[in-house]
Write a structure and sequence with these properties.
This protein is of the alpha+beta class and 131 residues long. The two termini are 27 Å apart. 21% of the residues are buried. This is SCP2 domain-containing protein. It comes from Cryomyces antarcticus.
Length: 131
């Protein structure tokens, strides 16, 4: 996916444009996504962001009971935003990522926090929606 140059990953939505189009078209028919988003615990829409550190261009993920939608915009449209350095996203999106880049939680670290990985915004909303 995209360039091997970490600088290209400084604008995550631009780097993932084709993937965002595909994920939106596939989301409604994905059984796991539908199972995850169909829950009485989701009593209203919630939007979170994913972005590269230093950029305001953000992937916005809006979860509603029974659906999910991926768009782009500014991080202020999200309750919280998962942020990582461009080179960390480059490693994360490799075809076969190596530890700790297989998941955001691996990068975030439970005991050792990597520099550049952070959750910005409403920490209570993050704790509420982390699952």
């Amino acid at each position: 996916m995209g360039s091997s140059d970490a600088h290209a990953w400084a604008d995550l939505p631009s780097q993932l444009t084709q993937a965002l189009d595909k994920v939106n078209s596939d989301a409604s028919s994905d059984g796991q996504m539908n199972a995850f988003t169909t829950s009485n615990a989701i009593d209203g829409p919630a939007t979170f962001g994913i972005k590269a550190a230093g950029s305001d261009n953000t992937i916005l993920v809006t979860v509603k009971n029974g659906s999910v939608e991926f768009t782009t915009g500014k991080p202020d449209k999200a309750l919280f935003t998962l942020s990582a350095l461009p080179q960390q996203w480059q490693e994360f999106f490799r075809q076969t990522p190596v530890a700790p880049y297989q998941s955001y939680w691996g990068m975030f670290g439970m005991n050792i926090k990597q520099e550049g990985i952070e959750v910005q915004g409403d920490q209570t909303a993050f704790a509420h929606w982390t699952h």
